[in-house]
């Protein structure tokens, strides 16, 4: 039986024909290409690399970038793509988010013309893969404390330091590394194979297993002057990137929740205990009712945030609310749905536990749930409670 | 190479089909629709040929106003233009359908006219060859390979336990069998460009049908399975039942 996406408030009617067609195309592709194989990839801890060319062919990489061969999609269509990809798996969506929002977007926003020409078309075609190196072993929620350093020497910079938890780090052709230079944070495009630069794989993950996660080690790495992003200085650079990516994560987490709900609804209707379908018991119905309610709220919030972004009103605080809400609620939904599947719910024959484990990462990265709570607190009160 | 592909809008093969209140139509409320898969294979091959050697691909769809969505999808996949012959008639017999299509195809120039071997809802396997007859064109059905050059096409056609290789002068009509081509997913750019591509509209005549559909019946509900035993010991009994009771061996 094919996926039946929950749309309780008929939000479909608020989408344009293009948005619907793009959503349906990605939805079908995910059903055909991701869902059948992703459980095994997850268990093996591998990413479905063979699907990258297909994603590129459809134009999903850097889909919101305008120009340089990219389609320049509006925020809602972009969000819908990420929702559908994460309905498949958070790892697949993470790859597309990093590529588009965390590497291509900053190159477009802060890069030189030469950097744009070099990377954007290639990254859109999937010929070059990017990663975003902000987090360090000792600086996660507080990236402003970063220790990676760049020192100017002639016509190049010397980078030293380490990054951790970097999605696609080991395979990336280009790493956007944020480092402190004369006290100011700057972005450096570090190419694969540069002497002194290595990106060992991080293993033993319980979450986001169908995704490459790596350390970046920089030991006296020479980076030419031309590889610095000229257009930005300070923490604002990486934070603006994160705001782009968090918007997509809100949609993505919703997609994972939709997958869990669909699976739990089907399962509880077909599984009988005490001579009745599980779905006929009040406790199960309550879980389904609450789950669908949260998904519907999430969908409304995300769609409206997208429309706000269309008129440049998607402020970082508004994005924080959507990211926090979607990730927190999706994680609860995944846990509830996992429970409804009983023992079957712990296997890779079903999706719920994979989504549940993935959402732990999604809830943590790009600002943990609590950090977004504090960002909203700051917005409401004007008082910063981080430090 | 100018190619016309006829495509039909059909209920999604994965959808749960409900029979409407009149007992002779399908209840379309909430029903997902798709381009009939064999038509989509024909379209894919047409697009590949256009990409290899230039030319145009036109899709022709006889169907309800809602088929505009499937037509857009064909344009998003890469077709250049479309003709939508609008019709509210739910059921039409094959010859009437073929006549309407042939009337609209008559005066058009094309090198190849492609159909799916059958639509997955009506399953008549009739339209492609009927249209060819009405247009007085050669037709090759069940095509699994199709190449064209210098005014002729070389095709492979499914035959009992093998394949026939056929050469035919163009223009000609072909119906697609599984294996001809694997339909692509439309790209985002294709979807965005589809809006700007022309869709010509026409109205289908309200012709009297040659056949009337009296009733639709759902397939009988599936009864539960039966476990005849366990392990290898169960095999002889299973084979006996498959032969004598289920009559499938
Ligand atoms: C699978 C995965 C992929 C990732 N990919 C990338 C990537 O591609 N690029 C990248 O740069 N990073 C990436 N990250 C890193 C991620 O962004 C960080 O893990 C995240 O920012 C949290 O940092 P931390 O892990 O150091 O946790 P910490 O900052 O140590 O936080 C631990 C806990 O303390 C809480 N906490 C921290 N500060 C406060 C405070 N002031 N008040 C109250 N509570 C607080 C947090 O909410 C959290 O619950 C990835 C992480 C994962 C798990």
SSE inventory with pairings:
The complex is a heterodimer of chains A (387) and B (249).
Chain A: H1 17-44, H2 52-58, E1 66-67, E2 70-71, H3 75-88, H4 90-110, H5 113-124, E3 130-133, E4 149-153, E5 156-167, E6 174-181, E7 184-191, E8 197-198, E9 213-224, H6 236-270, E10 272-273, E11 276-277, H7 282-310, H8 316-340, H9 352-364, H10 369-381
Parallel strand pairs in A: 3-6
Antiparallel strand pairs in A: 1-2, 4-5, 5-9, 6-7, 8-9, 10-11
Helix pairs in contact in A: 1-3, 3-4, 3-6, 4-5, 4-6, 6-7, 6-8, 6-9, 7-8, 8-9, 8-10
Chain B: E1 2-6, E2 9-11, E3 33-35, H1 37-53, E4 56-63, H2 68-77, E5 81-86, H3 94-105, E6 112-116, H4 127-135, E7 139-149, E8 152-159, E9 162-169, E10 172-176, H5 188-194, E11 199-203, H6 235-244
Parallel strand pairs in B: 1-4, 1-6, 4-5, 5-11, 6-10, 7-10
Antiparallel strand pairs in B: 2-3, 7-8, 8-9
Helix pairs in contact in B: 2-5, 3-4
The complex binds flavin-adenine dinucleotide.
The site of flavin-adenine dinucleotide has 21 residues of chain A, from strand 3, strand 5, helix 9 and helix 10.
Tertiary shape of chain A: globular
Instruction: Estimate the strand proportion of chain A.
Output: 15-25%
Task: State the CATH superfamily name of the largest domain in chain A.
Answer: Butyryl-CoA Dehydrogenase, subunit A, domain 3
Q: How far is the first residue's CA from the last residue's CA of chain B?
A: 48 Å
CATH top level class name of the largest domain in chain A = Mainly Alpha
Characterise this structure:
The complex is a heterodimer of chains A (387) and B (249). Chain A is α+β, with helices and mostly antiparallel strands and 387 residues long. Chain A has three domains: 11-124, Butyryl-Coa Dehydrogenase, subunit A, domain 1 (Orthogonal Bundle); 130-227, Butyryl-CoA Dehydrogenase, subunit A, domain 2 (Beta Barrel); 236-381, Butyryl-CoA Dehydrogenase, subunit A, domain 3 (Up-down Bundle), CATH 1.20.140. Chain A contains ten helices and eleven strands. Chain A has helices spanning 17-44, 52-58, 75-88, 90-110, 113-124, 236-270, 282-310, 316-340, 352-364, 369-381, and strands at residues 66-67, 70-71, 130-133, 149-153, 156-167, 174-181, 184-191, 197-198, 213-224, 272-273, 276-277. In chain A, strands 4-5-9-8 form a four-stranded antiparallel sheet, with helices on one face. Chain A has a three-stranded mixed sheet with strand order 3-6-7, covered by helices on one side. Chain A has a two-stranded antiparallel sheet with strand order 1-2. In chain A, helix 3 runs antiparallel to helix 4 (90-110) and helix 6 (236-270) packs parallel to helix 8 (316-340). The longest helix of chain A is centred in the middle third of the chain and has 35 residues, at 236-270. Chain A is globular. The mean pLDDT of chain A is 97. Chain B is of the alpha/beta class and 249 residues long. Chain B has one domain (2-203): 3-Layer(aba) Sandwich (Rossmann fold), CATH 3.40.50. Chain B is built from six helices and eleven strands. In chain B, the strands form two sheets. In chain B, strands 9-8-7-10-6-1-4-5-11 form a nine-stranded mixed sheet, sandwiched between helices. In chain B, strands 2-3 form a two-stranded antiparallel sheet. In chain B, a hairpin with a 2-residue loop joins strand 8 and strand 9 (162-169). The longest helix of chain B has 17 residues, at 37-53. The radius of gyration of chain B is 21 Å and the shape is globular. The A-B interface holds A 1-2, 17-18, 21-22, 25, 28-29, 54, 57-60, 63, 71, 73, 77 and B 12, 14, 69, 72-73, 76, 184-189, 191-192, 194-195. The complex binds flavin-adenine dinucleotide. The site of flavin-adenine dinucleotide has 21 residues of chain A, from strand 3, strand 5, helix 9 and helix 10.
